[in-house]
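Input record (Table S2, row 327):
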Amino acid sequence: MRAIVVDGPGGLEALSYRTDLETPQPGPGQVRVRTAYAGVNFFDTLIRSGRYGRKPKYPIILGGELSGWVDALGEGVEGLSIGQPVSALTGDSGCYADFALAPAGSVIPIPDGMDMKLAAAWPLQWLTAWGVLYASGKARSGDWVLVHAAAGGVGQALTQMASRSGCRVIATAGSQEKCDFALAHGAEFAINYREKEFGREARAITGGRGVDIICDSVGAANVIGNLRAICFFGLIVVFGYASGEPEYDERLLWGRSCGVAMNGLYHLVERTELLSRGVSEMLPGLSDGSFRLHIHSVQPLAEAAQAHAALEGRETIGKLLLEVNPA
Ligand SMILES: NC(=O)c1ccc[n+]([C@@H]2O[C@H](COP(=O)([O-])OP(=O)(O)OC[C@H]3O[C@@H](n4cnc5c(N)ncnc54)[C@H](OP(=O)(O)O)[C@@H]3O)[C@@H](O)[C@H]2O)c1
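Output record (NAP complex):
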């Protein structure tokens, strides 16, 4: 089997393309999927470089999501059939490979005819966005929602979902092109944070009131701006640390009676009821095109390093994929 393996934390050179690996065998409750496309996520770069919060065991095959076809069923798995096209979440690893194992509960049958690229591109980032916005943020129509990295993979999902829910979305991004993308995907306002301080700007946009919910995957660099932007009783939902771990001074939170919540996708995946709600609220819209998922690039499996370089270099808009077995 072919796969991208990381033997130990490092730079792009740590991604090694191997062709001599054994096909994994599904244990009880597991499903083996033959990979069509694997999603590339920012957290893959954190695992590769040793900066991920949950320390993995190396060597590791990267990749937490894929599309493909059910290839083998472990003991006790019901309701799936060999050859069935699916999207799947595998946890932190396993998908940059010809075959991957997923817990049966994280294997999601896809609608007939759904594009296999799209099927690989949505589950991790769009379910994360759903959890941030609804499970943590409790977003309601009329709320002001500030979305950071709004042209990124999770960002494009947050922007569209919030605006579809009747929220008023303020996006931040690091270039005019990314701001324009966010405006074209549901944001009412977009702030290029390299040109304007986003905290004061968001406060001014809301007429001095502040925003109800902040969706923040950037972390440390955004703490001060977030405290400027949040309204009384608002909630900052932290779900990533692209710039480092944020530290919020409790006294400053008291100053607005506001809160900070942390959000991890794995907690949503563990709760079957929440997971199926997320899936049923997003998959039809993705499949019929009413949610627009922009794919930035599709690289051959062996060229995973190029995808990592682009993601770490902040060059990307939307989703990155690796092509493994497209048919
Ligand atoms: N909690 C969870 O379960 C969960 C699940 C999935 C993803 N995440 C997190 O969500 C975030 C977004 O993930 P994604 O895969 O969708 O990536 P992404 O947003 O497509 O790419 C990362 C973007 O973050 C922005 N950024 C800000 N500071 C950065 C820095 N120091 N280095 C690199 N990028 C920086 C850049 O956008 P600008 O140019 O606009 O600044 C960049 O394009 C990541 O932090 C990821 O770890 C968390």
